[in-house]
Amino acid sequence: MSSIANGQSRKRKMSGENKVFLKAESSDEDSDVQLDSTLQNKLYVLVPRHANLDPSALNTSHHGVGIDQKNDFVSHIFGNEDYTWLPLKSDHDSRPLWISPENGHIILEGFSPIAEQAQDFLVAISEPVSRPAHIHEYKLTPYSLYAAVSVGLETEDIIEVLNRLSKVPVPDSITQFIRQCTLSYGKVKLVLKHNRYYVESAHPETLQMLLKDSNISAGRVYRDENDQPTTEENASLTVSSKPTGKDLTIPGIQKGKDAKVDEIDKKKQELEQQRKEEDKLFGAVVGIDKEDEEDDDEAEQVHSFEIQADQVENIKKRCNEIDYPMLEEYDFRNDTTNPNLEIDLKPITVIRPYQEKSLSKMFGNGRARSGIIVLPCGAGKTLVGITAACTIKKSCLVLCTSSVSVMQWKQQFLQWSNIKENQIAVFTSDQKERFSGDAGIVISTYSMVANKRKRSYDAQKMMDFLESREWGFLLLDEVHVVPANMFRTVVTTIAAHAKLGLTATLVREDEKIDDLNFLIGPKLYEANWMDLASKGHIANVQCAEVWCPMTPEFYAEYLLENTRKRTLLYVMNPKKFQACQYLIRYHEERGDKIIVFSDNVHALVEYAKKLQKPYIYGGTGQQERMRILQNFQYNPIVNTIFLSKVGDTSIDLPEATCLIQISSHYGSRRQEAQRLGRILRAKRRNDEGFNAFFYSLVSKDTQEMYYSTKRQQFLIDQGYAFKVITNLEGMDSDPTLVFKTKNEQMDLLKSVLLTNEADLKDEDVRELDDVGRITDRKVAAKNRMPGLVKRSTTTSKSLAGGDNMAYMEYSRTSGGQFAKNPRNSGASKEHHSLFKKHLKRK
Ligand SMILES: Nc1ncnc2c1ncn2[C@@H]1O[C@H](COP(=O)(O)OP(=O)(O)OP(=O)(O)O)[C@@H](O)[C@H]1O
């Protein structure tokens, strides 16, 4: 939930907010939005320049009784977020939303019968903040509203549906904010039709207003009655019908139907019927599919004027400056200049419902909208990108973060679509291919395209080829990791009609995420992790933080040493070593396959050697990596491997069912989510009662606890509950564990203190993923010994880890199985001071 006010006086708080709403003066003339970093946690930090919100509108006291005047005995607990004075609607029980008049945060009751529809609507108009099992939190921002209008929602519809869903009337301040943010956004589109560029809008007055701007009107093209360019000026706009998208089919939806699919369809219909009845009952037809409904109505008219191709960039820039950013849409079906690409999904390829939903946001009106699709790790972003390419059917450029990903994309194109191998070209430092024919696919890396340093002759020739032609589709993988300036270079050097960004975690520690909105387009869709897990598309994961006490000797040194040595001391803590050994043994006995992650290479090697397990880090040769990974996949004796951060992304090991993290890089929320992604794709995710496990081992009372809390935040916001394990049963009395005696512990301490400074650094991985996935499954399969992989049967209690471990919970529960463990009760009192602070802050 959003921060609970800390007792500041309302007067002081309001003055702070006034600051947020004040349009910052021209400190940065070029930026399209203003950022007030002192007020990071507030809504409306980003204010479109035209948005001229009246701060006094947010002074809630004019609505009724302010909290200062309230004398009841609970209001003070909620501080400035006590909204009991808001008038509840008489049928509020059947409405699932609360809207804060002060900061636009929206709280959704996840247990409401119409929560699913409400969720669809909220994802379209606001940013999800936190989505645990029962209560979800969203926030309205200028960008989220920009995204809403870009997928076809209209201002009044947004307000009306919010009002229908809300338990209280939508506050005036929020209505006003929505109006101001949607006033100009999404009203103007840049469309390429029959190879001519048009500025298009359903609002002729908006186009007339734009044409009054000399920069824009200078780029306008006039045509005579023979459709030839003329200098004769003609004031009228072209009028045409709005495209309906009716006859557009996204491949992979109807194909490959079997009995199971029919059954699902039947269930869907039943659910649909049930939903319709609920809608009737609650009178809250959400209306986000209004666009589709409109298809049945008479086609709406759109107005447009043509602009010169070489003026597109200038006009786009000008429109951004005057707060009328042009949405980019590609009318690919009417593009007759760029040759078509013969590509379709294979008949056996069936895309999943959430993949279809995300694509329908992109192709909702029969054209391709540029924007970003956010799906959890392992949920199949690649297939979404491939399906989009199969829909557009024009030349396509795919950019990824590493050469390993390039090969994976190529392999996936061949796996899911009917594209021929000679129609796909790979452009990396090792391979510079061309596709045969007029149209094709090129897969490359961001650095190959954006790096302007001296290129080899071949690379330069390839770049000339990429820059000299028009691309129907630009697919951008892992958009959250690529620096904004790299994007800028890519987007300006490559002429592409439609751009699609893919990511799992739209979070960056550098808060640069907003750049993506303007460089690629708005977020079109964001899936809910818990929903996908509950439907079996990604694995259910039990997350736990294991608190390992420091031995007195290690702790004494920890308090004395400098930061780098400190890190090594808490990573090499003998108790952590033992916990790691204990968990490996426990999960190996259950038949799990375990990946142990360590960012610190020194620790990685020490742990792996001591526990006699194979390890891979940046310095491991390619052959050795493949050998280790193949053994892990197919050899029943190799059930645990140690990986440095080279394995964070793109490693596809669906056999892995358990992750143990012994050292991590500070507080990166993204890294934590990516690591979790390694087990979300677990092959066995649909087995009854199956759970994957994610353990983070932290040394108690050290800085590591702070970082760990920070890292988990993204996953907690997706609904994961991290349990705290304070005691691994039987660990203290187990004589087989390493570093049992004081002498052994002291020897370890000595070796840590003698370690070179140079060894203490985390691995510097430039290539984001260079472990690679094993694509040569046929070779590997030969070595496999079927039936030998042992998986012991366990009780559900054991599956929940309840046999040997004591849990306590400090985060919101997701209704997970750990929470039901009777040992939980009462344990939650035992919060570490760091967590207490965290909880209070929450
Ligand atoms: N519709 C589908 N039908 C069957 N399998 C699918 C489908 N969509 C995705 N998959 C499979 O799911 C797995 C994960 O897909 P993919 O690698 O594209 O995930 P991702 O979202 O890119 O993950 P990450 O962000 O971790 O790289 C792959 O093995 C892929 O083949």
The proportion of residues forming helix, as a percent range, comes to 25-40%
Strand content: 15-25%
- The number of helical segments is 31
Cofactors, ions, other ligands: adenosine-5'-triphosphate
Class from helix and strand fractions: alpha/beta
Identify low-pLDDT runs: 1-69, 254-261, 278-299, 765-842
Q: What is the terminal-to-terminal distance?
A: 7 Å
Largest sheet: 8 strands, mixed
Which whole number gives the mean pLDDT? Answer: 73
CA radius of gyration is 28 Å
How many β-strand stretches?
Answer: 29
- Inertia-based shape: globular
Q: Could you please describe the fold and organization of this structure?
A:
It is an enzyme of class 5 (isomerase). It is found in: Nucleus. The N terminus and C terminus are likely disordered. Helix 5 packs antiparallel against helix 6. The longest helix is centred in the N-terminal third of the chain and has 24 residues. The radius of gyration is 28 Å and the shape is globular. It has 31 helices and 29 strands. Strands 7, 8, 9, 10, 11, 12, 13 and 14 form an eight-stranded mixed beta sheet that branches. The chain has 842 residues and is an alpha/beta fold. A hairpin with a 5-residue loop joins strand 3 and strand 4. Bound molecules: adenosine-5'-triphosphate (ATP). Adenosine-5'-triphosphate binds next to helix 13.
Descriptive tags:
8-stranded mixed β-sheet; alpha/beta; globular; disordered N terminus; helicase
